[in-house]
């Protein structure tokens, strides 16, 4: 908010309570009482200027380029030097930025470094200590009013983080278990401005932004302080446009270079379901088909099979599971209590924006005692009949003291038209090219899946 005291006619108004990374063409200044009623404007903006050339050593060296100033070599020992060229940044052919060094003439000789600390005249004009917005405002009458100042800036960002703590012994029991989930919003201010009394709302979703620079984006800054913020008013959220808006319901002081964390979820008693997944082919491969719509390479998806069995934790985002609010994308860390009560970190992953009634799925690592192996046992092609038949054996070993169920994934991307003609057990069709075999693997033992698939084109 900006308080205005306007006289009739043209007024000069300025404020330096802005960031040094704002986008000048995004600035909105209007009377709080005006709303969207353009027929009754409180004032009219004739001109707007944003001055961001804040005084720095390099700025003053550029200002005095071609002139002679004093440089302090040591206390009481000064030398005169002429600034032939001030240091400057320029963009190289690769899109990055490089600095051109200063060139100083001292006692008839030129050097590529400053001879000492530059001393500038105290009478230097036009120095700007903070970025400043200036307006020429035409007012139809004398008036005092509050105006809304809004703009887009880089240097302010936020992210969600989640900590899940499961109880001791849960790792030995596959399936559902009980855990507590705490969610934090982390807000970082590297904008170059302090916000002593900020009302913070956070928007979650994929909001489109145009990046004008090849390496553009928020500018990182030092994090001088971390403040954990909690309060009696819970964080709430509501649907806003096609996104979700989170309101902290409190004002906070957010200094430049500061990081604040606000707890927005505290959900004890959350049900977490663990499963093991073995993908022997190492993930989806939707390669373009050749030779009339099929891939005839016998080694397609065969060489160097993956042996790792992934550990996947699933959490239902429902009210019945003590959640039931849209969850912003962010990092989820999974912890488990040891038998002595100590909390141990057991893995982390990144979750996407998760709406209500959806499921959070995170891969926290690979099982140490559960391994997989996959091999092609047969391959035959009949070009005249346009048939390819291929057989696989997938073996999973389990060195744990208890049996586990492993979901064995197979990707049938050799061609669009396929049929499982032989199988050692039932499977689930997950999509048009992926099937899943539930495989019960005994303790200290192994189990095998065999299947044969026929492709036609």
Keywords:
457 residues, mainly beta, 4 domains, 1 helix, 30 strands, 2% helix
Q: Mean pLDDT across all residues, rounded?
A: 83
Strand fraction band?
over 45%
In whole angstroms, the N-to-C terminal distance is 68 Å
Q: Bin the helical content.
A: under 10%
Shape: elongated
Label the structural class: mainly beta
Report Rg. Answer: 32 Å
Number of helices: 1
The major pleated sheet works out as: 14 strands, mixed
**Count of domain modules:** 4
Per DSSP E runs of 2 or more residues, the count of β-strands stands at 30
Residue windows where pLDDT falls under 50 for at least 5 positions: 35-39, 212-233
Structure characterization notes:
The chain folds into four domains: 75 residues, no CATH class; 63 residues, no CATH class; 113 residues, no CATH class; 186 residues, no CATH class. 2% of the residues lie in helices and 56% in strands. It is mostly beta strands and 457 residues long. The strands form six sheets. Strands 14, 15, 17, 20, 21, 22, 23, 24, 25, 26, 27, 28, 29 and 30 form a 14-stranded mixed beta sheet that branches. The chain contains one helix and 30 strands. About 6% of the residues have low confidence.
Topology:
Layout: E1 2-6, E2 9-15, E3 28-31, E4 44-51, H1 57-63, E5 68-74, E6 77-85, E7 88-91, E8 97-100, E9 103-106, E10 109-111, E11 117-119, E12 132-139, E13 143-150, E14 156-166, E15 175-189, E16 195-204, E17 225-229, E18 236-240, E19 243-254, E20 258-279, E21 308-316, E22 330-337, E23 343-351, E24 359-382, E25 387-398, E26 404-411, E27 417-423, E28 428-431, E29 434-441, E30 445-456
Parallel strand pairs: 14-22, 17-20, 20-26
Antiparallel strand pairs: 1-13, 2-12, 3-13, 4-12, 5-6, 5-11, 6-9, 7-8, 9-10, 14-15, 15-20, 16-19, 18-19, 20-21, 21-24, 22-23, 24-25, 25-30, 26-29, 27-30, 28-29
